[in-house]
UniProtKB/TrEMBL annotation:
GO molecular function, one term: transmembrane signaling receptor activity
Principal place of residence: membrane
Entry's family note: Belongs to the methyl-accepting chemotaxis (MCP) protein family.
Organism: Ciceribacter naphthalenivorans
Residue span of region Disordered: 462-485
Protein name per UniProt: Methyl-accepting chemotaxis protein
GO annotation (BP), single: signal transduction
Phylogenetic placement of the source organism: Bacteria, Pseudomonadati, Pseudomonadota, Alphaproteobacteria, Hyphomicrobiales
Cell location: Membrane
One Pfam family per UniProt: MCPsignal
One GO CC term, this protein: membrane
SMART domains cross-referenced by the UniProt entry: MA
Domain named HAMP: residues: 158-210
Domain Methyl-accepting transducer: 215-444
Amino acid sequence: MLRALAPSVSKNIGAALEVFYKKVRSTPQTAAFFRNEDHIQGAKKRQESHWGVVTTAQFDERYVEGVTAVGKAHARIGLEPRWYIGGYALLVEQLIHAVVRERWPSRFARKEGKVLGEEIGVLVKAALLDMDYSITVYLDILAAERKAAEDARAKAEQEQAVALAALSDVLNRLSGGDLEAKLSPEQPENFVGMAHDYNSSVETLRGTIGTVRSAAEEILRSTTAISEASNHLAQRTEQQAAGLEESTAAVHELTQNVALTADGAHRAANVVSVALGEARVSGEVVMRAVTAMGAIEKSSDEISKIIGVIDEIAFQTNLLALNAGVEAARAGEAGRGFAVVAQEVRELAQRCASAAREIKALISQSSGQVQAGVGLVNNAGEALDQIISRIGEINGIVTGIASAASDQSVGLREVNAAVASMDTITQQNAAMVEETSAQTLTLRDEVERLVNALSGFKTGNTASMNASFHERHMQDPTQNHRRAG
């Protein structure tokens, strides 16, 4: 239906706006919102465009944005709603007259249509006027409430200014370290709780800072003691490190000496072992010599027996030759040749007997010497047995010495490694102690600065606490020295 009115509205909106802006020009309250005629013509064109959008019945986002822009413009320039509603009433009246004239069924009754248009226009004006009054009352109430709110805000701002001034004063004193500054409880009603909370907070802060200061002073004393103890510990650790370094060198030298001793003992054991083997071989040779001497003695006995037999044979031969010579002599000339032979045989038997006696004497002498040699060889064998036994004992002792020296060398190497490790650890500990001492001194300086900073706060018992702290601090170095020593 609204779109059906679009041609009539488009046809008559220009004339209606001429009547509207004529009224605007003649009314000082509305004319003041326009700079010149160009400004009015620009507003008129925007109104025509706006009514073109309205008659399309498309109340979409574009329409809402346009209406919102108009409302913001009215609010910015301070146009009261009654002038906006009155102007719309005049514009709507002109449009109603135009629409009624165009749509009235008879030209002869056009006068009645005009009257009807005027009556409808009056009715619309009355409705808009009634709406204007209601909105005006609503806006008056809003204005009164706004003024009351502004008065309340002004009062609150005044009370806030008073409270903030008092708070600023105590905060300035607080920034200077005065924790005895308090807010007066005689504050505006809305700030009495704030004053109480502030005073309670400052009281708590004063107690906390006092506790922190006491703790900081105690930490300062402790760090002083720790610093001195760390210095003494660092000195002792350095001395211990130097002693361990000397011990490491001595143990290392001892380890080398024991290793050399073990090596010499092993070589001596090898030499003794070789000597033991050679002595055993010599013993075996002596035993074989004893056996051979025994065999020689036995052979000498056998030869003596044979020589005895030969001597007996020579004796018998001599007797036979003697008898043969006697018999040859009895035979006379016939036995002379036989007597010569018998004499020769007798002489040969005598020489044989003489040789046998000499051989027997030599064999007897050789047998005595062999027996003496056997005795000597037996004595040598017994001596070699004793030597072998002693060498065996020496070998066992030297082997034990070599084994013990080897064990000692291994043990000393382990001791040397342990002492070297202790030396390294002690040096590391010395470095750590020095670093700890330096950090402790740094901590002491920081805590001392903290104590000095906390001493700047006025808590009511600052003077007594400072005097007590300095008195204790002057005594602490001696006590710390006694504890560190």
